[in-house]
Amino acid sequence: MKRILVLFCMTWIALLPSVGMAQIDGQFVKPRTGKFILKNATVVTVTKGTLSNASVLLENGKIIGVGASLPTEGAEVIDCSGLFIYPGMIDGGTRLGLVEVSSVPETVDYSDVGNVTPNMQALTTVNPNSEAIGVTRVSGVTTVLTVPSGGLFPGTAALINLNGYTPDQMYGGFKAVAMTFPSSGRRGRFDRRSEEEIKKDGEKALKEANEIWDNAKSYLELKNSGAELSYFPEMEQLSKVISGELPLLIEVNAASDILSAIQWVEGKNIKVIFTGIAEGWRVAEQLAKAKIPVVTGPVQDLPTRASDRYDTPYANAGMLAKAGVKVALRTDEEENVRNLPFHAAFAAAYGLGKEEAWKAVTINPAEIFGVADQYGSVEVGKKANLIVSTGDPFETRSQILHVFIDGYRIPLSNRHIRLYQEFLERSPGLKAN
Amino acid sequence: MKKIFYLFLAFFGLGCNFSQAQVQKGSVLIKNATVLTVTKGNLESADVLVQNGIITQIGKNISAPNGVQSIDATGKYLMPGIIDAHSHVALDVVNEASAPITSEVRMKDVVNPFEIGIYRALAGGVTVSHAMHGSANVVGGQNATLKHRWGAKDPADIIMQDAPRTIKFALGENPTRVHGRGNGIQPRSRMGVEAVIRNGFNEALQYKKAWETFAAAKNTKGNTLTPPVYSERLQTLADILDGKVIVHCHSYRADEIYMLINVAKDFNIKKLVFQHTNEGFKVAPEIAEYTMGASVFADWWAYKMEVYYSTAFNAAILQRNGAITSINSDSAELIRHLYHEAAKTQRYGSLTDEEALAMITINPAKQLGIDDKVGSIEVGKQGDLVIFDSHPLSSYAVPQMTFVDGIKYFDIVADKDDQRQLVIATEMVEPIYLRANEEAHRCMQDVEIYLDAFDVAFLKENH
Predict the structure, then answer these.
(1) Cα Rg for chain B, rounded, in angstroms?
(2) Does this complex have an ipTM over 0.85?
(3) B281 within a domain of the structure (yes/no)
(4) Using the beta-carbon criterion (under 8 Å), do B459 and A131 form an inter-chain contact?
(5) Per residue in B341-399, pLDDT tens?
(6) Contacts of A109 (CB under 8 A, 6+ apart)
């Protein structure tokens, strides 16, 4: 027991920053920015190959140097010998920050009343102090798309960095209007509609979607022609999709629905991202032909049909990529977003491959969201979102030792870790005082 | 009387047929694998021979007896079949929620050997699962321990007949919501949960005493005592008091775990395992001292209030405090990668490979009372084995073959697209289940009628 304690203490001592700061249990209390040099690591840039014995220089929230010999003046030196530097991971679809405890409705904010509410802003309700954010970022996930869900147009999703005290400090520069494409699938065991009812509901919902779309088009035309319009925030937000100001993020999963969604967006001349795409492997060719980028996941999921091969959810991303679809991954989670690297590992093992899997959680989502100049790789000029680990971060045995978000060095603590520190050897132990 | 005797004989005969259903056993030799025995260390390029369902030899250069198939596992890893101590796979019904105590019901009456979830679990290396009653009531039904003999058509053939009896208990939010809030009867609070259990056991003690009194008086001269009314419900509780049934208790908060330990001490109940146990880490010394340990999630938290103050380091803290600890799924999805769930104890608490693997093999076997039969690769144990392409604790590990009793039920090379054993004729169009993860957790299935609209809407979040 004593040995474990010593080991434990040594681990924490190893985590001490080389410049003294206010500390709790060997940790600094709050994120801090400055000039840092991460020295002598293996740098996995994702876009420019892997560099051994390289360093990364960070200042003012940016990566200002990547290479063998960088000037260290004025920089806090963090020795990364034997360690690995990767870009921070991006989860392409979550509810992080929008929900604290799923079964307590007072803490659930990702869904509002109504079927057409594209003006509901996820960013507004992101809780920067959600416990789940601290729990997530120490896993190496530094940026997530947080998405409202529920109705046909449930709201507007926002890209957020997992550091900051206000939603605006967290905002990552990308928004998209979410759409739940009318579904011909069952939602679960509780969904006891007949096949016919499901089909009818789907057709009705699509008709409704078309009517709403036409209204939004009329709204935009009237607005562009200078007409005086009454306050109509739903149409105002949808018209931004039609004008090309915002992309449309379409949640669609069943194969037949994916095909009708491809048809639906055809000729609309809007920016489109598909998400979910559970049965994408069935229609991968058509998706590739349509040149629509995809955020797929969760990877650790059940097949959609009893007759499917057991590994279809694991293999889906790989089959899509092989067909030529641009693929990013998502967990579709809230408190379990920290599992993104493990979803990526499963996708890698079942056909996507490690290199493509890394792209699917870094540069691909960055490109799909149009923020690749800022995110998704370790390159000079990009935002300083990166992680330092003892090994492959997709492996559970690797430990993440440093996390930088927006150039801020993040304390590697959260409630899960604090509870570990307190209860590993509880005092008093078994006997009463 | 004679008639009744014959009737009894007839039923007895029927029972015999039922329990002696045809269970197939096989022989196989797996060669040159890295053998992770879990209990006896690792063996490099070693062979394991299974004969007629039992491991008979472990070592080097074993040659295959006549007629025994030999499988080359060079460069691959062999581990014991994975055991899931908390599952609802292969059950048609999960909850009998009609009363706070329903100890009379048995999950073995609702086992469905055709459920595709069994095959999917095999494809994740799981050979044994503990098919549990749900958590709607304080004392639920008796569970069934299953062996994943995919292809069996008789439910009895997938029940592990030599496993001891176990029963489901449940504390906290689920029973108080279903009965207190939904039904207007005790328990509405954690105080009520304790009362239901203590009242139940005290009634069982009276019941037992009444039968003992009757049995003692039966053969005395001039006896006028009539037998007490038989109650399967109370008899089962009495069996728990007599140590014949292992209690597996759904629990989350430290206070309720501590409560049940105290109740168990008062009634001298020794066979007690906690399930979920998210706050088990707070009372780890108490769990370690008195119980058969805890079966936990690797990292689930925050899906409901009573798991908000939990930590992914739970399993590691329990282990370091000496509690028998297992990692379970409670989910048709998680059961597919329990090897990966166990591996998370290395991210959260730096457990050794052996400790992590024990959490899905020998430790759950201990908690189910079957550790003399399965849970490690040892001579004399049942031939439940899994071959992985790389170390099973790697995130990239892919199960290759799964054996139960020496018979191969999963082979990644021979895997067909459609593995269903039964196609339901009335389902002309096969249903597509989207967001199946939410569908995968069935702890609170079949209790809709007791809940209001809000609870039903949030049911999918509850375990």
Answers:
(1) 23
(2) yes
(3) yes
(4) no
(5) 999 999 999 999 999 999 999 999 999 999 999 999 999 999 999 999 999 999 999 99
(6) A98, A99, A125
Same domain as B86, residue B231 = yes
Interchain CB distance below 8 Å, B396 and A100: no
* Residue A195 buriedness (CB in 10 A; 0-12 / 13-18 / 19+): middle
> How many other C-beta atoms lie within 10 A of the C-beta of residue A193?
12
**Using an 8 Å Cβ cutoff, are A41 and A55 in contact?**
yes
- Shared domain for B322 and B277, answered yes or no, is yes
B137 and B273 together in one domain? yes
Helix H or strand E encompassing A355: helix A354-360
| Torsion of the alpha carbons at B217, B222, B224 and B227, rounded to the nearest 10 | 40
Look up the domain containing A267 and give its range.
89-375
Distance CA B336, CA A200 (A): 35
- In chain A, which residue's Cα lies nearest the Cα of B337? A300
Q: What is the CATH number of the domain that holds B257?
A: 3.20.20.140
- Identify all chain B residues contacting A348, using CB atoms and an 8 Å cutoff: 396
Q: What is the pLDDT of residues A163-197, one digit of tens each?
A: 999 999 999 999 999 999 998 777 666 677 887 88
Residues B407-447: tens digit of each pLDDT:
999 999 999 888 988 887 666 567 777 765 555 667 787 77
Same domain, A83 and A93: no
Establish if A183 touches chain B: CB-CB under 8 angstroms: yes
What is the reported pLDDT for B17? Answer: 46
Mutate to test the interface with A, among B177, B341, B432, B445 (most CBs of A within 10 A): B432
Last residue of some domain: A360, A375, A390? A375
